[in-house]
Amino acid sequence: DVIKDFENDNIGSIGFDAFSKVFGQCSVYPLALEDENQNPISPLIQENGKPVNPQTDLCKDKGNYRPNIKAFISERYPLAYPLTVIYPRDNRLEPKGKKFAEILRTKEIQRLLQQTGLIPLQPLD
Fold it and tell me: Residue 48 half-sphere exposure, CB side, CA atoms within 13 Å?
């Protein structure tokens, strides 16, 4: 609804949502944020490595941008948060939770998670 309001009525707003929601559209720009005395960090970069900003025409360049994976992995982008697996440590049970966490860290699963809009633990390219 926020995107429709913006496109139809030119209403501006600031909100939070899953990072994957910004792909495939050209009305919403994720904010570049700065922490203390550091330069602003954009969560998206263009194919040429430059940050996406409000002057970037996302409609014209749809698909020519990607997550700034280095900013997320290095935790320089302040709104990043980890995916956490919680499991009981009960020696009477098979260690399924730990094995599941190990499987999530494999490159194959990291690629699948990236396809859903999550940021991998390390660059996969």
Answer: 5
Listed as ranges, residues in the chain with pLDDT below 50 are none
Rounded to whole angstroms, the Cα distance separating 69 from 66 reads 8
pTM attached to this predicted model:
0.70
C-alpha distances out from residue 62 to 7, 25, 48, 89, Å? 16, 7, 14, 46
Give CA separation, 56 vs 22, 30, 32, 33, in Å. 14, 12, 13, 17
Specify whether the CB–CB gap between 19 and 30 falls below 8 A: yes
From the list 44, 8, 5, 50, the residue with the least C-alpha distance to 23 is 44
The pLDDT of residue 1 is 62
Spatial separation of the C-alpha atoms in residues 56 and 58, rounded to whole Å = 6
Helices within 1-106 (DSSP H only): 2-9, 69-73, 96-104
Q: Determine phi and psi for 51, rounding to 5 degrees.
A: -70, 150
Q: Cα separation of 9 and 18, whole Å?
A: 23
Tens-digit pLDDT profile for residues 13-23: 677 777 777 67
